[in-house]
Design a protein that fits this description.
125 residues; alpha+beta; Alpha-Beta Plaits; 5-stranded antiparallel beta sheet; 3 helices
């Protein structure tokens, strides 16, 4: 299974708040100790000294992504999304993307199953 990319969004948040929210989710996932998670890297803006820059709202999860690991990460994402009504997380695996705006336990289980199976159905919303 490939890497998972999580993209954090909050409709009313400015850049600073999005950075804080993404850092919060990053720390929550790191605390699990199950996967490697880091901010996504992209090209640096023109004129910067570094050849890369972390993407403000994207996290990349790597490692062994078993069904149980994905389910556990899914619980953390659900808890994160459910802390505020305007939060959402987009999950990308290869060319498949799912968006979540607060999901039930049943949908959380379905998320883990879909990601583990690599299905291309969308859920959430």
């Amino acid at each position: 299974m490939g890497d998972l990319t999580l993209t954090v969004d909050a409709s009313a948040a400015d850049e600073r708040e999005l950075h804080r929210l993404t850092a919060s989710l990053l720390n929550d996932i790191r605390a699990l100790g199950l996967v490697n998670v880091a901010r996504s890297e992209g090209e640096a803006p023109a004129g910067s000294k570094s050849g890369w820059s972390p993407q403000l709202t994207e996290l990349v999860i790597t490692g062994v992504l078993s069904t149980s690991t994905i389910a556990t990460v899914g619980k953390v994402v659900v808890a994160f999304v459910n802390r505020a009504k305007d939060r959402s997380v987009k999950v990308t695996l290869g060319d498949k993307t799912w968006s979540f705006n607060g999901i039930s336990k049943a949908d959380q289980h379905e998320l883990a199953q879909m990601l583990a199976a690599g299905e291309d159905d969308q859920a959430g919303q």
